[in-house]
Write a structure and sequence with these properties.
Blueprint lengths: L5 H8 L1 E4 L2 E4 L6 H13 L5 E5 L5 H10 L6 E5 L10 H8 L5 E4 L3 H4 L8 E6 L5 H14 E10 L4 H10 L5 E7 L8 H12 L2 H7 L2 H7 L7 E6 L4
Parallel strand pairs: 3-4, 3-6, 4-5, 6-7
Antiparallel strand pairs: 1-2, 7-9, 8-9
Length: 237
């Protein structure tokens, strides 16, 4: 049976065409993550207005658009300053080739666009932009303001150190509910991550920071976060 999630075929194909040359797709969510995001949006019909920060080759954009397809009033806004020069409009092209029209791509940096956006506008915001700590902090800060009450923020690559540190800060917000929504198969983890997983299971974050040397904590602890996390906005600022 052919899936309605058009990103699955794109991921399995494994490449995009840039200047008529096959270029391996990268910097994208994988097949399992795409399936999870698709099902999450598809089953919650209240999700109509979506903001995506970071497009790259368009795998996540195609996933979101597939899930929103034929949903009345749905629209995807994408922010990606590098879509044209770095990615040669690969993300935009795959959406157009898949006959999706309900999207807008903004070729600018999120720090320039997010402060200008209307608050409480989006039902879901998906963040997979620049991964430095300061950029992640900024993107999540404004996303909390822009998402509607009871709306969702999904952050990818939560198992990277910089992203994990930012998540650790924001999950303490009183108006935010935190969910670990997607973890990779434990059997597929490297030996290093399996060992770190045991440490994380024994120690919570507060005690781990006290007991473990900083270089060990920074190197291992946040790598054990799920790859996808979800914030739900349960109250206004």
């Amino acid at each position: 049976m052919k899936t309605e999630n058009k990103a699955i075929e794109y991921i399995k194909k494994g490449y995009t065409l840039i200047n008529n040359q096959k270029v391996r797709i990268g910097s994208n969510i994988d097949l399992e993550e795409s399936s999870f995001i698709y099902d999450f949006i598809k089953t919650d019909r209240s999700i109509k207005k979506v903001l995506e920060i970071g497009c790259a080759n368009g795998v996540s954009s195609l996933t979101i658009s597939s899930a929103l397809n034929s949903r009345e009033g749905s629209f995807l806004t994408i922010i990606d300053p590098h879509q044209e020069k770095m990615w040669k409009n690969a993300g935009k092209r795959i959406l157009e080739e898949s006959s999706f029209e309900n999207f807008k791509l903004i070729y600018d940096f999120s720090e320039n666009i997010l402060p200008k956006e209307k608050e409480n506008k989006y039902d879901l915001i998906f963040i997979d932009g620049w991964h430095t700590f300061d950029q992640v902090m900024l993107d999540i800060f404004y996303s909390i303001r822009l998402v509607k009450l009871n709306g969702y923020i999904i952050r990818d690559d939560a198992d990277s150190n910089s992203v994990g540190k930012a998540i650790s800060y924001y999950k303490k917000y009183p108006n935010i509910k935190y969910f670990e929504i997607f973890k990779r198969n434990y059997k597929n983890l490297s030996l290093k991550r399996k060992l770190a997983n045991i440490i994380k299971y024994i120690l919570n974050e507060f005690f781990a920071q006290i007991i473990l040397p900083k270089f060990i904590f920074d190197k291992f602890f946040y790598q054990l976060n799920p790859t996808l996390i979800l914030f739900q906005k349960i109250g206004n600022d």
